[in-house]
Amino acid sequence: MRGRPLPIHGDGSNVRSYLYCEDVAEAFEVILHKGEVGHAYNIGTKKERRVIDVARDICKLFSVDPEKSIKFVENRPFNDQRYFLDDQKLKNLGWSERTTWEEGLKKTMDWYMGNPDWWGDVAGALLPHPRMLMMPGGTERHFNGADISSSGQTPFSSAGDTQMVVPRFQEQHFPRKPSLKFLIYGRTGWIGGLLGKLCEKQAGVTGRPNVDWCESHKIETIRANVAGTLTLADVCREHRLLLMNFATGCIFEYDAGHPEGSGIGFKEEDKPNFTGSFYSKTKAMVEELLKEYDNVCTLRVRMPISSDFNNPRNFITKISRYSKVVNIPNSMTVLDELLPISIEMAKRNLRGIWNFTDPGVVSHNEILKMFKNYMDPVGPQYKGP
User: Transmembrane region positions (predicted)?
Assistant: First the structure.
């Protein structure tokens, strides 16, 4: 992509098994729910590919000539011809590879191209032999016996020249990153408490009990949700600090432009359209006002879930105690998965509004059925209200 050569060890005839990351994640989930404790499961594919063919496919995606971009270098030590794993045991559990090679490679390229701030500089991966062999007298020895001075520079070898190139070592000095400090307003609350476990040396207070409380305590709700949040944003801005605002996605309802079951979700740019509760009304109000602050990162959390089923604020724990539930698909926020990402977002100084939920939607009924099946699979199955 940047005009640099793509090194291939040996002749590129080594074969490997390539799987798209989502297929691997689905394999983990299948093993988690259907696998047996103490057993080992291979996650693989029978569709092996030669390294040289993979390199050519990558060049094709970037519209570059593989004959000009691919450079053959000396094979690395212990470079096995293949690493084949039989995945039949995993397939017997119900897992199967769903993403084709072409589709997975294209998705991978698109992700890296579209999210450069998330992965940084990976140019070091293009060094074919990153470990230098320094001989006495300040020379670098190639595996074919040739010597060059430590100040010399040798280009990649061609396919007909099997001399291994050992890159000259360059010491790099990186500026020391300053230590980060997080002040958690809401530390003794549920989400704040989980954040506290991910950070160290925090301080904070908790929020009000629940949404219903807000209906009978409107002044207090305004003071906390509107005035309190704006004050935090203002003070942080005066001190040139970033405010990570854990907000709510409970400010939308299905409408003509977003009908239920259509798969059309509300985007970060959409204005709130739900004011059915005073809590949601204040949250929508303050979100609009916070748009004027350039130091705020608002995360729309929706129906938070965690692996701690003993916490009464866990959405799963909460609805499992209800006598009746609504059967409307909603977005969900899995805290175990997303809270670490929020810390990374703060480190990256991200701003604006973000829908802080997992992909897709799920209804209360579906959650209760899964909860019942996973937590008590031998008991009577949940049939819904």
Answer: none
* Separation of alpha carbons 160 and 306, rounded Å: 57
**Residue 128 in tokens:** 């074919």
190-375 classified as CATH 3.30.420.40: no
Structure tokens of 267?
């985007």
Q: Which architecture does CATH list for 6-126?
A: Alpha-Beta Complex (3.90)
Identify the three-state secondary structure at position 136. Answer: coil
For the chain, the 3-state helix, strand and coil shares in percent, each to the nearest 5, are 35, 10, 55
What is d(CA 210, CA 250) in angstroms, rounded to the nearest whole number?
Answer: 13
Q: Give dist(CA 9, CA 125) in Å, integer.
A: 13
* CB 51 within 8 Å of CB 14: yes
Listed in order, strand segments (DSSP E) in the chain are 6-9, 15-17, 48-50, 70-73, 134-135, 139-141, 147-149, 243-248, 296-301, 304-305, 333-334, 352-355
pLDDT of residue 187: 64
Q: DSSP letters of 50-98? A: EHHHHHHHHHHHTT--HHHHEEEEPPPTT--S------HHHHTTT----
Delimit the domains of the chain by residue range.
Answer: 6-126, 129-172, 190-375
| Integer Cα distance of 239 and 198 in angstroms | 24
Which residues of the chain have a pLDDT value below 70? 1, 131-179, 187, 200-210, 376-385
Give the chain's largest Cα–Cα span: 84
- Of the candidates 44, 4, 9, 2, the one whose C-alpha atom is nearest the C-alpha of residue 27 is 44
335-347 helix and 190-198 helix, angle to the nearest 10 degrees: 60
pLDDT confidence of residue 160: 42
In sequence order, what are the residues at sequence separation of 6 or more whose Cβ sits closer than 8 angstroms to the Cβ of residue 167?
127, 129, 130, 132
In this structure, what token pair is assigned to residue 62? 């970037």
Q: How many CB atoms lie within 10 A of CB 317?
A: 16
Q: Are 70 and 5 in contact (CB under 8 A)?
A: yes
Percentage of the residues of the chain whose pLDDT score is greater than 70: 81
Q: Tokens for 53? A: 């063919």
